[in-house]
Amino acid sequence: MRTLYFSLLLFVSISCLRFRVENLKEEILFRIPLGATNETFEGVVVNQVLTNVPLTIPTSSNISALPDNKQAVIKLFDRNGRLDATIGNPDFKSVAGIPHYPFRFGGIGIVAMNEDGDLVVQNRISSKGMELPAGQENLYKTYSGAFSTQGTTVLPSFLVQITQKGVVKFMLGASGKNSEPFRYIEYILPGEGDKLFVYHRIAEEMRLSYFEEGELKGNLKESALDVFSSSDAKEYDITLDKLLPHPEGDYVLGSFSYDSKKDKRFKFRRIYRFHFDSKEVELLKEIQDPSEILFSIRNNGEFYIWETEDGGNSVRLQVHDKEGNHINNKRIPFSSPRGQWRETYTDAFDTIYSVRIRSGALEVYRWI
What we know:
Blueprint: H1 2-18, E1 21-23, E2 26-33, E3 45-46, E4 49-50, E5 64-68, E6 73-77, E7 83-88, E8 100-102, E9 108-113, E10 119-124, E11 157-162, E12 168-173, E13 176-177, E14 184-190, E15 195-202, E16 205-212, E17 215-221, E18 236-245, E19 252-260, E20 266-275, E21 278-287, E22 293-297, E23 303-309, E24 314-320, E25 326-333, E26 341-346, E27 352-358, E28 361-367
Parallel strand pairs: 1-25, 7-8
Antiparallel strand pairs: 2-28, 3-4, 5-6, 6-7, 9-10, 10-11, 11-12, 12-13, 14-15, 15-16, 16-17, 18-19, 19-20, 20-21, 22-23, 23-24, 24-25, 26-27, 27-28
InterPro entries: LIC12708-like
Organism: Leptospira biflexa serovar Patoc (strain Patoc 1 / ATCC 23582 / Paris)
Protein name: Lipoprotein
């Protein structure tokens, strides 16, 4: 009995430790004024909603970058919300005393920032002369933040790696430097050093391409993933949710949803580990709740599962170790009103950010 008692006590202690919840605190990093002048960020309001805010705002220690697709420039703001520099449209009327570095973007899409502070900009090729199907909006004229990977028209673009002083380092296409353009790009993630990961679509399939110093090192193609040819494919409709790379490029986590072929209902979600340079596949996690979603990977190999709580007023990030064991939890409690908060995201260096619109300003927070 004594042995059983201590065994139960040990189990309860481990369980409590394992499912402890750490409440994170918000720390404001940037507060960028919204306005109609060249030294502010012009918000476009539709039905009382700010529509042209990018989903993610790339930041370094002292600078944040906001793409203004209306004027074809990227505005760099310091921690105090002051305009530090602008990059882009040679015809842009620069602000007195603020440096402007000219570069002619065809159309600005996603913007990311690497470890050295260089910008990686999705530069869409001009749509001049392209005929669009009747009734389809010209997505090239869509403001930043509204870009979608869905549509019937090809949206060719290149990635430009450019310094904060406007020096172009190289142009990147789907196969490396100066190669054919990307079509659809869903996300860009700068990794450690000169590593860059691009999640994009080619010929109706998603793929994750891995570049280093502008050279293509490998990719994972949706059609080549063994998950779709497994015996489970007879019973389930399998959908790729996302592919997320480890920042060092060692491996990739893939999330897949399984729906019953009989009743078309969600049954479970699985998370696998893949490698760029081998066919090895490892099942790490099976999730029964459709609301639990793979969110990000940390440098140490732990990964987060996103779980919405309290009607969306908070988020619990389930922390899983490299082998898929649930070891801890972190809670992001959004202060009221919840409607002010926009996207929550991470970078490759374990920082969790959220964007907030409040009192005529665009705010970037870090959760600590």
